[in-house]
Amino acid sequence: MEAEDFDAALRFYRDVLGLTERAAFEGEGDARVAILDAGAATLELANPAQVRMIDAVEADGRPSARIRVAFEVEDGAGVTDELVDAGAQLIAAPRETPWRSLNSRLHAPGELEITLFQELETPLERSSHPGFTAGGAGGRQG
Q1: Other CB atoms closer than 10 Å to residue 1's CB: what's the count?
Q2: Fewest CB atoms within 10 Å of the CB: 20, 79, 83, 130?
């Protein structure tokens, strides 16, 4: 991700959000990069109807960016406040979703839209609700 204000973005993602710096490099002409560990990644694929439903639940219907990065946190409300204090713009305050997580949405440094989510149930508990499953067919196993 390109960030015009590299130092501010680094402080935001590393120091406030808590992503661990794995490596950093400097080059000619003030070229700088930091590699931050964001943990395990998943790719959430959704059809337009699902995206509209998520936007309705998470952001009062405000359309999300085409690409949005979500971070799981332990304290959704607290981390949201910390990120706003660090310069993020609040799009939607933390709210409980039908899928039993506490979600907030922010516009963060580097022109990135992010969702913070705090799980309120275990995957097993959530899979007992109608419309939810723990996984599906396909993909790599093991």
Answers
A1: 11
A2: 130
User: What Rg do the C-alpha atoms of the chain give, in angstroms?
Assistant: 17
Digit-coded pLDDT (tens) for 4-45: 999 999 999 999 999 999 999 999 999 999 999 998 888 889
**Cβ burial, residue 109 (10 Å; 0-12/13-18/19+):** buried
Alpha carbon distances (Å) from 30 to 5, 12, 26, 40, 132: 12, 20, 7, 30, 49
- Domains, the chain, in order of start with CATH, read 6-123 (3.10.180.10)
Residue 60, both tokens? 């009062």
Both tokens of 53, joined, read 């439903």
The span from the CA of 119 to the CA of 75, in Å, is 9
Closest CA to 62 of 104, 118, 119, 17: 104
**135 and 115 Cβ atoms separated by less than 8 Å:** no
- CA 93 – CA 114 distance, rounded (Å): 12
Show the DSSP H helices in 38-117 as ranges. 48-59, 76-85
